[in-house]
Design brief:
about 210 residues, alpha+beta, 9-stranded mixed beta sheet, 4 helices, about 15% helix
Length: about 210
């Protein structure tokens, strides 16, 4: 092995980010540069890197970030809001793993609202026969049979908010994810992305 053009001594240390390391004349590649992003996904984009049906994907929204990143979890075609993206598989697996129970908070605009249906949604313990963890539901505003709800879940079942609302006889007309664990969408414009801060990355990795 050679280190910076010289034969490496036994026990000599090297920094793969700074030093040139060669084994059998072949230079070892530098470790990948990990990137962690928050995207404000608009409605009408699928949460994949390519789509057989030719629909627009989140990939084109982050094409200018400099590296290929992948979605951490999903938001369905007609949902919008906070979507984490990264090229760090360990980070993605930790954030998505059910045992960490990272909370996800949504704004849900619904029709067919009533106090009884709100109570049904707030106390729901099973979804289509399957047990679900606790759900926090807060009524933000109501007018006629329309309402704006703030819903926090602690798991990531497929289309969970929409399915829960349907089970409570509520029709979701718009759904936006506004936070995931300690990370908040804030004022990030629809279709825009930003890098996560060191504090946000650390906080996500430290979730129980």
């Amino acid at each position: 092995m050679r280190l910076n053009g010289n034969t490496a001594a036994l026990g000599e240390r090297a920094d793969p980010d700074e030093d040139v390391i060669e084994v059998d004349g072949v230079r070892l590649p530098k470790p990948p540069e990990y990137v962690y992003l928050m995207l404000h996904k608009p409605r009408g984009f699928v949460t994949t890197m390519s789509d057989e049906q030719g629909r627009r994907t989140v990939r084109e929204l982050v094409a200018d970030c400099g590296v290929r990143v992948y979605p951490v979890g999903r938001l369905d075609l007609n949902s919008e809001g906070l979507l984490l993206m990264t090229n760090d598989g360990e980070f993605a697996n930790r954030v998505m793993h059910p045992r960490h129970g990272i909370s996800k908070t949504y704004l849900a605009w619904v029709n067919g609202f009533s106090a009884e249906k709100l109570q049904t949604l707030s106390t729901m313990k099973t979804l289509e026969g399957e047990a679900i963890s606790r759900t926090e539901v807060r009524l933000l505003s109501a007018r006629g049979d329309g309402a704006l709800l703030r819903i926090t879940i602690h798991e990531g079942k497929n289309r969970q908010i929409r399915r829960m609302c349907a089970q409570a006889a509520l029709h979701v007309t718009r759904l936006r994810r506004i936070s995931e664990g300690p990370v908040h969408l804030g004022e990030l414009a629809s279709g825009a992305w930003r890098a996560l801060t060191e504090e946000e990355i650390s906080a996500l990795m430290q979730q129980p």
